[in-house]
Each structure stands twice: as C-alpha cells, then as structure tokens.
Amino acid sequence: MTDDSASRYAAKPWLALLSDAQRAPVDPARTLVHALRRVVAETPDRTFLAYFDGRLTYREVDELSDSVAGHLAARGLERGDRVAILLQNSPHFVLALLGAWKAGAVVVPVNPMYKSGEVGHVLRDGEVAALICSDRAWQSYLRETAADSPVRIALTGCELDFQTRNDARVLSFERLPQADDTDDADDLTAVARAGHKAPQDRDLGPSDIALISYTSGTSGTPKGATNTHGNIMYNAERQRTGLELPDAPVYFALAPLFHITGMVCQLGACLDSAGTLVLAYRFEAGVVLDAFAEHGPHYTVGPSTAFMALAAHPAVTRDHFASFRMISSGGAPLPPALVEKFRAGFGPYIRNGYGLTECTAPCASVPPGLEAPVDPVSGTLAVGLPGPETVVRIVDDQGQEVPFGEQGEILVRGPQVVPGYWRRPDATAETFPDGELRTGDIGFMDAEGWLYVVDRKKDMINASGFKVWPREVEDVLYTHPAVREAAVVGVPDGYRGETVKAYISLRPGAETDPGALAEYCRERLAAYKYPRQVEILPDLPKTASGKILRRELRSRVNDG
C-alpha cells in the first residue's frame, strides 16, 4: 500500500456506517465441523435439513456424516486427499461435504451441469481421489470420466432419498435398480446409514484447505481457488452476526451449494447460526415459491435472475415473501430497477452484495437498516460496504490508488481472501500480489465507503475509441417494462471497431420489438452507448448459479 492509502482506503470510511454488532470482532469456530459439534451438544434434535417432506436433525446429520467419513477412511482415503462432490441441493451434498471433512479431506465442489471434459479437467488437475455424485450421472457419463482420472473411490446417491414427496417438477426421474456387489460405486445413502465411526485423527484447523473451488473459466482454463476453513468460518460468522436474523433462523438454499455463495452464505451461515436449511434440489420457480409458503424462511440469497423468475411466476403473491427478514442478491449484477419493482410488488428490499470465489463469497454487502445508494452519474447501484477487517482499494492501470469517485480495478485484502490457486504459483503471484486479490472488476468507491462495481475489465466495449460498460446499458434496459433479462456485449463493426449489441428476454405476456428497445436506450444514453443491434431470445444462457453468460452470447455472434 502507498502512504496515500493510509489516509484513504485503509482509513475504512465505511466503518462509520456499520452498527456496533457489525463492527465487533468475531471469534468463529475452527471449522464448520466444530460448529456442527457445538450445535449437536446444545440442541441435537433441532431440524438441520428440510428436503420436501423429509427432515434431518443435527444429531442425525452428525451421525450420518460420521458414517460417510468412516467409510472413506476405510476405503483408504488419507488426510489431505481430495474428494469431488457433484450433486444438486439435497441432503446428500451436506452429508458428503461434512463426511469428507471429518475424514480430513479437501472437498472439490463441481457444477453438476459440467460436461465430461470439464469434469475430467477438475478430477485430473485436483488429483481427486474420491468422487461423490448422483447415481444417474455416474451411470450416464461419470464412470467413464472417472476411469481416466486419479479417482479410486466412488459413492453415488439417489436424490429421491430422504423425502417421499417426489415432486415431479424437479424430481421427475426414476430410481435406478439397486447396485450389486460387483458395482464399482458404493451407495451413499446406505453408507451413511451403516453406522461407521469417523476416524479420530483427522481433525482440521482454520489454515487447512477446505475447498478447491474451480473458477468458471471465463478466461482460460479453470483454476482452483483454495478456500481455507478459516476463510469459510470468517464469512459465515460475519453473516451470522451481521444479518440480524432471529434465533434458529430458517434459511432457504436458493443458490446452489456447490457455488461459493451457497456454500458460505447459506450452508455455512445456517450451520453457524444453528438454523434450519431448506433444500429443493434445484431452482424451479414454482417449487421455490411453494417451499417459501411451507417453511416460512427468514433469509435467502441468490442471483438477480432468480428473483426475476420468481417475480414473473403466475402464482406469485406478496404472501410468499411475508416471512423474510432479509433477502440478498449475489453472483450476478443487480439492476436498480429490479430492486424497486420487487419491493413495489412483493415487499422485501433486495440487498446487494459483492464477492468472488477468491474471497470466499462476500467482501461487501448492504447491511440491515441501510439501503444501497445509486450513483447519480452512471445509475449504478452500490454493491455494499466492506466488512470491518476488509480493505478494498481502487487502483489505475499502473497500480496507483485513485481518489474516491474515480474508476479503477477493485483490490481486496482481508481474512476471507484465499491464499492462492491450487498448484498454480504463477497465477497466484499474478492475482494475489502480497496477498491482495486483484479482482479484474472495474469499480469505484465514494467518500462514505460505498463500493460500486461498473463491470468486468475484460467486458469493456471500445466503440470508436469510447469506453462502453455493458452494465450501464443493461441497467437502462431493465427499466423497460417488457424486459425480463438483458445482456450487452461488444460485436465487431467495420467502421467503429466494436459496436453495442443487446440480447433480451421478455417478461411473460409482454410485447415489443428490437427497434423499439434500441430507441428506448437511444433516448436515455449517449449516442455511442446505445445498442445498434438488439436480439430477442426466449431465455438468456446462464451458469448454474444464475449469472448470465456474456461469453456464450459473444460466441453466438462469432458463430453467426
């Protein structure tokens, strides 16, 4: 840091806006396993997991995950070995995760939407020893993928277990025939119910790696961020102390648990709060709304696209959101227009947040009692305030700090920042110089400490020499009453070098045309910013965590 930083960013102006509880030091448990043991000792019969009509108490989860740990150890899994988990939001994921940690392993969460080649890269790069997945994925492609990898132990589960409702909207598959003794994978549910004892010499601490979380690979080959148990517990504890939820809160797992947001802000925070975590396999708007009505959750966090889908569902009412004390958005940009439309229609104010896999989910958020300001010049909604132990700096291309209000790259230092990438010293040195995370995001901070994210550095559009940030154009499009989703990319242009193209999906029943949308933007943006091309699609491509994939839209242009 420069001397100037000591009087600017390191002075942490945002501390004045935090409450006493939000500023207070935290003393988290060593790991989530230790947090689990604490709850089991105090309230063992409290419901931990709710999965449709199924319920598992903290005691049951502890015993079932003990058995998974004992089985893995008996099969030869050593302390520090990697265990890949490729599952949706079901109890199986939680049992596999806790069981792997109790066995002393490092967990590698894998997106269930990954294809064989993507999974194969993770298994080989992480030198994964054990794979835990659904039985259907194992039978269809993962057995073959695992055979070409270091995997030597496989457990498979059927997500119809631990419930009996079999909601056809998400659980529309049939149970596979029971595996016989010659099968090369063990049944996860049977293993969990077998009563094995967890090994006693595998205890992990805050500095041990908990997760190798592979990035989405938007620029090059995916890299594994090494989230430590200390990283996870710090952010989980900050969530517990900062959200002002009631005792034994009910969390709804809107974000997938394999994603760092779902892992930390839902599972981690819920366990640390001795709460109940409601699981619904995967996102389906009608199923989610029914779960809200059935379980009355106090908190959830998800991408803006999920809230757009919930708001557009024909059966949605204000009553579905009546139980919530707080709703947060993360993982995808949150347009200001959506915040106001959602509040007007359903009541809750959606609180913005900002983080990356490399900082173990949030490094800035909008605390209870405050609302994020909107920058009057760009119309950008602030993503929040950093935490008390976090320092966020904004620097120019030469690495020099810029004054408050000026744009530059966002850098983050704090207890949630990972030590680096798995076995990638060059990438670690480039992204984490002196332990500080270079995010690749462009943003600015105002004098009060509110952080604003403008866009990804690599997504900037150069139109005739003018910088165009897609987020600014998207935020304008979201104010149009017909627009449900919007994504803006740069496309080649013989005269301007690049020009702006917008991809749109429409709200149910809405009608408009590309020309009208382009004109709407032209009236509200500088001439070089408005989209010269607009294409309307039924849906925009997204990651499993709900983030719109601009790279796929750029590929669509190139392929076309």
From TrEMBL:
Tell me the InterPro entries matching this sequence. Answer: AMP-bd_C, AMP-bd_C_sf, AMP-binding_CS, AMP-dep_synth/lig_dom, ANL_N_sf, ATP-dep_AMP-bd_enzyme
Keywords from the UniProt entry? Ligase
Instruction: Name the coiled-coil region(s).
Output: none
Record-level Gene Ontology MF annotations: acid-thiol ligase activity
What superkingdom heads the lineage?
Bacteria
| Residues in AMP-dependent synthetase/ligase domain copies | 37-422
Does the record bear Nucleotide-binding in its keywords? no
**Residue ranges annotated for the AMP-binding enzyme C-terminal domain, each copy included:** 472-547
An example of a Pfam family matching this protein is AMP-binding_C
Belongs to which family?
Belongs to the ATP-dependent AMP-binding enzyme family.
Instruction: Please report the name of this protein according to its UniProt entry.
Output: Acyl-CoA synthetase
- Which organism does this record belong to? Streptomyces caeruleatus
